[in-house]
Design brief:
Bound molecules: 1,4-dihydronicotinamide adenine dinucleotide, 2-oxo-3-(phosphonooxy)propanoic acid
Number of strands: 17
GO molecular function: (S)-2-hydroxyglutarate dehydrogenase activity; NAD binding; phosphoglycerate dehydrogenase activity
EC number: 1.1.1.95
Number of helices: 13
Pfam family, one: 2-Hacid_dh_C
Order of helices and strands: EEHEHEHEHEHHEHEEHEHEHEEHEHEEHE
Strand content: 15-25%
Helix content: 25-40%
Family: Belongs to the D-isomer specific 2-hydroxyacid dehydrogenase family.
Distance between the termini: 16 Å
Structural class: alpha/beta
Largest sheet: 7 strands, parallel
Low-confidence stretches: 1-12, 14-27, 30-47
Strand order of the largest sheet: 9-8-7-10-11-12-13
Organism: Linnemannia hyalina
Radius of gyration: 26 Å
Length: 464
């Protein structure tokens, strides 16, 4: 990737809120970058037709805030683009976040930072969010989309890490290893076999058979386990696994119940007293999904009463913001209970892959408007503008998804040569990309002005 502000390409943009007023400097456009257009050329092209690098006005003015110890692979890739990158090892509380997010064009977070409506309203220039993890429940996705802010995540780069952790926990729980380990550290030798079992032949019940659940299915089967799963959609069972049609059907059959659903309105408090009572006497619960899926007081009661044989819990309804902070939970001190600080996806392999994957998605969105992979946004991409196409521009238009918009844009572009164009919608918003050739600097300004003044405009960018 060529770096920094030597890149002789520019962009112009504006954004309006739903009620109409212009938000100054919004959407990936640095302060003071009025749509004044001059052209310089990229290096000469020989041989292959290279893709032209489209970038914002001055990459050095693009501000990126990375929280929660986002991996160095991402920091390096974003700095390599010439962006200003500020990093924090921890999550920020609402007040600090509101102060910090005010003037950034892009924010990168992991599972802890809450990007609520209130926080997003304070983000005057934000154009894109990177969740350097799988879960996106920490972001108000719909509200972000309504402001033209695209959200990207890494859908499966840490799935294997979670699945491996769960396999380890199944063995540890089955052998009461947490308790034995604690005793040894306390100087107590306690050699027991009572209620310790092999996992071979036991039944694992997987709730949520997505990327993690299905990976776990394969690993568990290879350890000799019988695999049942429950999911809201019918899915192809891998190996000899079997889909059951009710949660109760799974809870009453499984020796190990393991949760791999996203946090949604339907999954919040999914496992409470009623569900725990349905689980077999002496069975185990594992939660490496989200803390809100399980009602912690009910779980603590089931563990202390001996109804459950143990539990492994990686995620909690309230998690400390930073390493070293105090952790408290009703689960502390429960028998045969493994507690881990949300480390399911925390391996070198996963973090490094996520850093590369999400930073590339952010760079593509900032520099060339590509929204493929966005979780809250219409997914649009166009074949690259070639490096030898001197007077071509790319229009990126995020707009309200209402009838008549395309006709309006077609009218604005009627006299121009639209090389290629694609648009898609998702819910209340739509996104159009169009590459237009043979335009003069004055025409670029006109196109930009006319498009950004349309009543349906959310964000307009022109890249070249
Ligand atoms: N502990 C950790 O460090 C990590 C935790 N996670 C959590 O694990 C979750 C699952 O991850 P993936 O497998 O990648 O997600 P996924 O989206 O691939 O799979 C989720 C599955 O759950 C199913 N589902 C949704 N609602 C359901 C319901 N009410 N009942 C039953 N099934 C339901 C879906 O149909 C889907 O098949 C993530 O959303 C995230 O919250 C993910 C990575 C690391
Ligand atoms: O990927 C996810 O959804 C996770 O829960 C992992 O979160 P983290 O990146 O460790 O904050």
């Amino acid at each position: 990737m060529p770096s920094t502000n030597s890149t002789p390409v520019q962009s112009v943009a504006t954004a309006t809120s739903a009620s109409g007023p212009i938000i100054p400097g919004a959407a990936l456009i640095p302060e003071g970058s009025a749509p004044v257009v001059t052209r310089e050329r990229q290096g000469s092209v020989s041989g292959f037709k290279k893709a032209k690098v489209l970038k914002p006005f001055n990459t050095a003015n693009i501000k990126i805030l990375l929280l929660e110890n986002v991996n160095e692979t991402a920091v390096a890739a974003l700095r390599d683009q010439g962006y200003q990158v500020e990093t924090f090892a921890k999550a920020l509380g609402e007040e600090d976040l509101i102060a910090k997010i005010k003037d950034v064009h892009c924010i990168g977070i992991r599972s802890k930072t809450k990007l609520t409506k209130k926080v997003l309203d304070a983000a005057e220039k934000l154009g894109v969010i990177g969740c350097f993890c799988i879960g996106t429940n920490q972001v108000d996705l719909e509200y972000a989309a309504s402001k033209g802010i695209a959200v990207f995540n890494s859908p499966f780069s840490n799935s294997r890490s979670v699945a491996e952790l769960v396999i380890a926990e199944i063995v540890l729980l089955s052998r009461q290893l947490g308790d034995r380990n604690n005793e040894m550290h306390d100087g107590i030798w306690s050699k027991v076999s009572a209620n310790c079992y092999e996992i071979r032949g036991k039944t694992i019940g997987i709730v949520g058979y997505g990327h993690i659940g299905s990976q776990l299915s394969v690993l568990a089967e290879s350890m000799g386990m019988r695999v049942l799963f429950y999911d809201v959609v019918p899915l192809m069972p891998l190996g000899t696994s079997k889909q059951v049609h009710t949660l109760s059907g799974l809870l009453t059959e499984a020796d190990f119940v393991t949760l791999h659903v996203p946090e949604t309105e339907e999954t919040k408090n999914m496992i409470g007293e009623n569900e725990l009572n349905q689980m077999k006497q002496g069975s185990f619960l594992i939660n490496a999904s989200r803390g809100t899926i399980v009602q912690i007081p009910a779980l603590a009661k089931a563990l202390r009463s001996g109804h459950l044989g143990g539990a492994a819990v990686d995620v909690f309804p309230k998690e400390p913001a930073a390493n070293g902070n105090f952790f408290e939970s009703e689960l502390v001190g429960c028998p045969n209970t493994l507690l881990t600080p949300h480390i399911g996806g925390s391996t070198e392999e996963a973090q490094s892959m996520i850093g590369v994957e999400v930073s590339q998605a952010l760079i593509k969105f900032i520099n060339s408007g590509t929204s493929i992979g966005a979780v809250n946004f219409p997914e649009v991409d166009l074949r690259a503008i070639r490096d030898d196409q001197e007077n071509s521009i790319r229009l990126c238009y995020t707009h309200a998804n209402v009838p008549g918009v395309l006709l309006r844009i077609t009218n604005i572009l009627a006299e121009h040569n639209v090389d290629k164009q694609f648009s898609d919608s998702k819910g209340k918003i739509a996104y159009l990309m169009a590459d237009i050739s043979d335009v003069t600097p004055e025409q670029i300004q006109d196109i930009y002005r006319l498009v950004s003044e349309t009543p349906t405009n959310i964000v307009t960018r022109v890249l070249y």
